Amino acid sequence: MAKKKQFALSRFAPIAAQPVSGEMTVSELVDGAFWAYNARRLKEACRLFAGKMLEPDSVVGMSLSGALTPAGLGISCLVPLIENGFIDWVVSTGANLYHDAHFGIGLKMFQGSAEADDVALRQAGVVRIYDIFFDYQVLLSTDAFFREVAKQEEFQHPMSSAEFHYRAGRYLAERERALKLGRRSVLAAAWEYGVPVYTSSPGDSSIGMNLALLELKGYKLRLDPLADVNETAAIVYAAKESGAKSAVFIVGGGSPKNFLLQTEPQIQEVMGVAEKGHDYFLQITDARPDTGGLSGATPGEAVSWGKIDPQRLPDSVVCYLDSTVALPVITAYALANRPARRHRRLYDQREKMLEKLASAYRKVTSGAARGKRK
Predict the structure, then answer these.
(1) Res 37 pLDDT > 80
(2) 223 to each of 150, 160, 355, how far by Cα in Å?
(3) Is 374 in the active site?
(4) Cβ-based neighbour number of residue 230 at 10 Å
(5) Which residue stretches of the chain are H helix?
(6) Are 172 and 323 in contact (CB under 8 A)?
(7) What confidence tens digit (pLDDT) does each residue in 310-320 have?
């Protein structure tokens, strides 16, 4: 019996916790003290991201939902990840990109209280995002910024949301330089390093609301969500076709999660092009899977849709944690354990990647046509 127990336990790593000290780095704390429960999941997430997803042959897509940028996570985490080449393309809620712009144009957010009297805040012209406060004028100033930018001649045509965000990012970068702020905006960093940024619901944010107003006034800018579907699928197909791996880093859930993952069903199910699914899956979420919502859906469930390669399920980690806790830890761990990667500048390669995908689809359809003729 003793031998049986020893044999069974020999497959598992022993818990070898280290005493926590004030001199520990974040990386040392994660490796030495995170041994079970959600702490262990977080350690697995750190190691998956830094150890496998950031290999040179991996293309990393990130989805963002929840109020991350108002809490400063754009400046603290997302900008460093982009600057170091750790994120190659992004799908975000429009709200995260809108609130990101506050910092880029020199506006301020404040620590507040979730127990505040919201009627009193409204009367005082203060807006609340849980325990974040900011002046109502911040909204009006940011609205005005996006309207003035989108009125420019370079925006007066239909475009993908990536093209809109890339062009707007240049204006944010110029505003940061004029105000001598340093790099504060995710969109400005994405513009600088050629990281395409998509939004899965272009009208579902204050950016979309302001662009809708410009449409009423006769301006010609139109965001094309179908172009986004094709461009994001092309990014994934081009990566896999070149022999690289596709990694997805999902912060939160919701529509951005689906838009990031649906790239594989678009390739396989809709276009009929042979593919196996994403190779690496990392998600931070506080949603439960048993309610049937996408935000809590597991990697195993994603396999049934063709979103995840079933052979790669061991390279999937879900952390049931608050993103504002997990993302800084994962970022710090990656920066401590990985050198900067080359910037792929996928934005500059959109047309070439689209042609690769279109060519693969033409082969499928021409093959089907030949089969019918026979």
Answers:
(1) yes
(2) 11, 6, 21
(3) no
(4) 19
(5) 2-9, 26-33, 37-48, 73, 79-83, 94-104, 118-124, 136-150, 161-179, 186-193, 206-216, 225-241, 254-261, 263-265, 299-305, 323-337, 350-373
(6) no
(7) 787 788 899 99
**Given this model, what pLDDT does residue 11 score?**
82
Crossing angle (nearest 10°) for helices 26-33 and 37-48: 130
Specify the 3-state DSSP secondary structure of 255.
helix
The CA–CA distances, whole Å, from 238 to 33, 203, 265, 327, 336 equal 40, 28, 15, 28, 30
Question: Do the beta carbons of residue 80 and residue 331 sit within 8 Å?
Answer: yes
Strands 245-251 and 280-285: parallel
| pLDDT score for 6 | 59
> What local confidence, expressed as pLDDT, does residue 293 receive?
67
Strands 58-64 and 110-111: unpaired
Residue 368, pLDDT score: 63
Contact 183, 83 (CB under 8 A): yes
pLDDT at 299: 72
Alpha-carbon gap, residue 78 to 63, rounded angstroms:
11
The correct answer on CATH 3.40.910.10 for the domain covering 29-108+146-361 is yes
Q: Which residue has the higher pLDDT, 298 or 120?
A: 120
Report d(CA 261, CA 364) in Å as an integer: 22
Pairing of strands 132-135, 126-129: antiparallel
Q: Could you read off the pLDDT of 96-133 as tens digits, one per residue?
A: 999 999 999 999 999 999 999 999 999 999 999 999 99
Phi-psi region of 362 (alpha: psi -120 to 50; beta: other; left: phi over 0): alpha
Does the pTM surpass 0.85? The reply is yes
Nearest to 211 by CA among 147, 295, 148: 147
Given a contact cutoff of 8 angstroms between Cβ atoms, the answer to whether 344 and 238 are in contact is no
DSSP labels, 164-178 = HHHHHHHHHHHHHHH
Given 52, 151, 307, 363, which residue is catalytic? 307
The first and second tokens of residue 84, run together, are 């170091």
**Cβ contact 236:309 at 8 Å:** no
Mean pLDDT of 83-101: 97
Domain residue spans of the chain: 29-108+146-361
